[in-house]
Amino acid sequence: HCDRALLMEGGRLIDDGEPRLVANRYRDLLLGGTDEEADLPPMQPVAPQPAREARPEARAGYRETEYRWGVGGAELFDAELRRPGGAHGVSFRTGERVELALRGRFERTCLRPIFGVYVKTPDGVTVYGNSTRHLLREFPAADPGEVREVVFELSLHLGAGSYLLSLGLAEEDGADVRGLDRRYDVLQFEV
User: Fold this and answer.
1) What's the pTM value of the predicted model, to 2 decimals?
2) Which DSSP symbol is given to 58?
């Protein structure tokens, strides 16, 4: 595995450093983040939620080293990796079908919300990525206070090993995509 990565755009070097950090910056740029947004510190901890709502922080596989940022306006407050109809899990078989349920709460009107997911190896290699933007032509607007759940169905055609989930909630505004709440390397699971 490598210990250095380079990120180029338009023939010029824009980042040089630790592969995981450079890969995160690449994803930020790819999914609509700006250099300004990418340099923001992680979001501040949010107020405790009612007991009926689970949080990734309370789930098995949570990684305290997650990198979190966004411009606000919505919160990605839960993520659950499970067998269809089952409970959250962290150990699966190669080829097994799983569901990844993401739950977001909107603090303001969001005309075109986008939920997204990446599965990566611990050294930052992306092995899967998808979003509601790519799956649906039109995703309904969200109102302030609304909670929305999106379920991605995945077949884990992965080799044995550890994998990390990176999740995001963004908003499309014309050609612009703004990261509202992005959570990189938030959950770990095993195949």
Assistant:
1) 0.73
2) G
What is the token pair recorded at 44?
């501040």
Query: Token digits for 108?
Result: 């303001």
Give the other-Cβ count within 10 Å of 115's Cβ: 25
- The answer to whether 157 touches 95, Cβ cutoff 8 Å, is yes
Per-residue pLDDT of the chain (191 residues; tens, 9 = 90+): 678 888 887 778 878 888 877 777 776 665 555 444 444 333 333 333 443 456 788 888 999 989 999 999 999 999 999 999 888 999 999 999 999 999 999 999 999 999 999 999 998 899 999 998 888 766 789 999 999 999 999 999 999 999 999 999 999 887 788 999 999 999 999 99
Of the candidates 27, 113, 102, 30, the residue with the CA atom closest to the CA atom of residue 67:
27
3-state SS, residue 37: helix
d(CA 74, CA 162) in angstroms, rounded, equals 29
How big is the chain, counted in residues?
191
Q: CA-to-CA distance for 123 and 73, rounded, in angstroms?
A: 31
Kind of pairing between the strands at 162-173 and 113-120: antiparallel
DSSP code of residue 95: T
